[in-house]
Amino acid sequence: MKKILVVCVLFIFVGIYATQPSAITGMVFDGVTKAPLAGAAVHAVNVSMNPIGDEGKVLTDSVGRYLIADLDPGAYTLSVEDIEPLGYYPKSYPELVEIQVGDTVFIDIGLIKLDSVTGSISGEVRLLDYYSNGWEGKVTVFSLWGEILAEEEIQEEGTSEGLDCAQFLIDEVPFIPCYVMAEVRGYHPQYFDHAYRIEEAYSVCPSDPPQGDVDFDMERASDSTLPGKVSGLIRGTFGPLPYSSVYATKEGKLVDGRRTGDLGTYTLSLEPGVYNVFATRAGYETAGYAGTITVADEEVSDVDIILFPQGGIGIEEKPSTSPQVFSVHVTPNPFRNTVNISYYLVHPGEVLVKVYDASGSLVRELSSEYETAGKHHIFWDGIDSRGSQASAGVYFARVILDNAFTTKPLVLIP
After folding, report:
1. Distance between CA atoms of 139 and 154, rounded to whole angstroms?
2. Could you give the C-alpha distances from 105 to 75, 76, 81, 99, 275, in angstroms and in order?
3. Of 78, 93, 296, 371, which alpha carbon lies 20 to 30 A from 242's?
4. Which of 403, 408, 389 shows the shortest CA–CA distance to 341?
5. SS (H, E, C) 58-97
6. What is the pLDDT of residue 326?
């Protein structure tokens, strides 16, 4: 009798658990003012079902809250659609959202204000070490937070200075800072300007008319027919992370690179050897697989990497919706003799470049002049305004354009 009772209770518990509803909930708000947005349509689609399951659409309530309930287990895309009448751009959450039985996942979504003024991003994709005919690729524009703003397919058009190339022009891009990535089958995916880590990428801003200076020189990846394979999954906070770039290095040299598919998976093709693997994506911190990977003639699977949203940056470095935003990079850092301070201006203007010490005192003003839009750089040789050698320590390079500025730390070593 006790056994029957226990079994009955167990079946009742399992039945209740199995039917416990799962949900995605959160708030939709203005990405700048943080004001909640009522009447926004939030859409969840189960992409792990075959065929893909459409789980419907809900509207946010008067305080911007949404609740998509009674979801089946699976991986979901999450997007805010049909939002233009409210004055905002549509948005797709960068990650797939994984749901298990009984889960309630909380995701807040900030939207970009719809502006009647949009711009274009244009440039050229050139292939180094060109080896075949009829190639195709894609150029993708990301916001600094990681959502995809626009895409354009590209294909071989001809030659430019001996390199096979394709030009691209992406119109009607929101007038905000963006990251741009190019990918061509058989070549390493690359962020502008020749960056393989998002932290090294330049942000650009659409312009009208287009300036045509967002160019890529694509480097060959490994032969996809090589017997050694490394595969895995790139994940974000809530689930698989599509459009991540995954690279393998050997003795510090880039060997192969691929973009993850729609479900966040990847496969690298490698010769036998010992490799390090890392992943990068707009809106997320670059991260590597713990330890090295030894590749033979068989596939090494489950090389999974988790990426976390970019954070921990100062107020001056936070993404801004102002078109007067520019990128600043310093190399090498730390430095011993000379550091190169490079910056990309999205529009012309009066530019000041100054170096401060850790106490905030001005060490030296490096430049004060009117400069055109585009890439610029200036060197600091470690000499202060009195002509003396600055002591080893932490300094800060500040680039000022109009009323906006960006500050980068510099480490001067003995």
Report:
1. 7
2. 12, 11, 20, 8, 36
3. 296
4. 408
5. EECCCCCEEEEEEECCEEEEEEEECCHHHCECCEECCCCE
6. 57
Q: What is the predicted pLDDT for the residue at 103?
A: 78
Global confidence as pTM: 0.68
- DSSP secondary structure of 19-35: T--EEEEEEEEETTT--
Q: Which two tokens stand for residue 61?
A: 């309530």
Q: What is the pLDDT of residues 245-255, one digit of tens each?
A: 999 999 889 99
Amino acid 55: pLDDT: 66
Strands 190-191 and 178-184, by their bridges, are antiparallel
Residues 6+ apart with CB under 8 A from 290: none
Residues 6+ apart with CB under 8 A from 347: 205, 207, 323, 324, 373
Q: Which residues of the chain have pLDDT under 50?
A: 1-19, 162, 312-325
Q: Find the domain containing 40 and state its range.
A: 2-111
pLDDT of residue 9: 34
Question: Is 314 within 8 Å of 328 (Cβ atoms)?
Answer: no
Token pair for residue 93? 């959450």
Query: DSSP characters for 123-168?
Result: EEEEESS---SS-EEEEEEEETTS-EEEEEEEE--EEETTEEEEEE
**Boundary (domain end) residue, out of 82, 111, 140:** 111
Domain end position, chosen among 193, 218, 243: 218
Q: Is 319 a member of any domain?
A: no
Q: What is the rounded radius of gyration, in angstroms, for the C-alpha atoms of the chain? A: 25
**Per-residue pLDDT, 173:** 86
